[in-house]
Amino acid sequence: MTGDDRPLRNSEVRPLWRGRALAVLGIVLVAFSLRSAVASLSPVVDHVARDFPMPSAVVGLIGTAPPVCFALFGLLTPLMERRLGLERVAVIALGAVTVGLVARGLAVDSSTLLIATALVFAGVGMANILMPPLVKKYFPDRLGLMMTLYTTVMAFSTFLPPLVAVPAADAAGWRVSLAMWAVFALAGTIPWIVMLLRSRTEAAAAAAPPAESGDPVAAGSDRLSFEDATALSTGPIVTAPSSSRVFSRLARIPLAWTLAGVFGTSASMAYTAFAWLPTILVEHAGTTPQQAGLLLSLFAFTGLPASLIVPVLIVRFRATTALYVIGALGAVVGLLGLLLVPAPSIVWLWVLLYGLAGLLFPLALVLISIRAREPETAVALSGFVQSTGYVLAAVFPFLLGVLHTTTGGWQVPLIVLTALLVASIPAGVYAGRHITVEAAWERRHGRIW
């Protein structure tokens, strides 16, 4: 499926690996680093606290840092991409993650740990924005497959750190446990660096005088590159609007705001669950802390099958609206079950249903790719959607904590969480319209994007 949601012709589809093996590897390593970098700290906080004090305020800031950094760099990354290009910013993002992870392992107190963690999340925030446009740029003919691969790797890398981090900390110390994930981020820079060097070489060859054979393809090459072929097939070059103009236009398009609402709801459900679900289960449902931890893993596990099926169902069968309604209403039933029937014997069912909110995350990522015609617009749309959505994700868990403190229970926070899901359904339905933001602008304002 292309950016304007029309089916690709057979002639436009090519084997996944032909000329794109490095891009596949680079996207997989970026996806793995996004979640492993975030999920590797919390399991070993107790180990860290044995070496130096970890004040509650610092722990709270570390918990709030991801959505705040993601929102901030959601705004900055499109500006960087405009000047440097997708691949260079990907190298910068993974470099920041690598340095931050190593620095986190070398932290000497809670302040240096917080600074290193902020650097990690800054790099992750940049990479978050880049992933949908990178997939769109290199795999316009394989969006469903690559988004499935990308989101599945992210889901897998959410489970792996909690399983490995504590045994690694017990065996080799918490510093090794935190720093070892830098290997994957560093490895992730290699494919993009190689591709940058290759493109520079190709650009230099293209600038050389053409062969006298009359062949439009440079001497020594028997076919056009994928990028050149794409450029030739898409017609005349049109000057793209500046980043500030793109953001201004996106803010005037209802489709962009509905996508931000979809993403924000997804992120809010995830960060609220990881921040508060174990506490809710212990205090409201009467589970033990051990059971609450297992139930949180059950909640997270639902994201794995969702990442496998959602991209394909959206790209091939345009099932956006149905998937959103299933995910949102399923989570609503789970939250109402927790609210009204919080019995330990059945709470697993409510958590499993609440976990259907995991359908919304891969859905939102796929929509960012297919609701833009061009990779450049996809970068701006990704920045707009994710920065706006992560603001909601940063505020909502804090709001629920305030409501819990004010009311002395979890009934009101659960009602508010349920209301957010219900209120988001119209946005999910609207986002299911088969139109790009460029086309929406052109229809709305009567002029070319």
Automatic annotation (TrEMBL):
Membrane topology designation: Multi-pass membrane protein
Keyword annotations: Membrane, Transmembrane, Transmembrane helix
Domain of life: Bacteria
GO MF annotations, alphabetized: transmembrane transporter activity
InterPro entries in UniProt: MFS (IPR011701), MFS_Cyanate_Porter (IPR052524), MFS_dom (IPR020846), MFS_trans_sf (IPR036259)
Regions crossing the membrane: 21-45, 57-77, 89-107, 113-131, 143-166, 178-197, 255-274, 294-315, 322-341, 347-367, 379-400, 412-431
Annotated PROSITE patterns: MFS (PS50850)
Name of this protein: Putative transporter YycB
Gene Ontology terms: cellular component: plasma membrane
Pfam families listed in its UniProt record: MFS_1 (PF07690)
Subcellular location: Cell membrane
Occurrences of domain Major facilitator superfamily (MFS) profile (ranges): 21-436
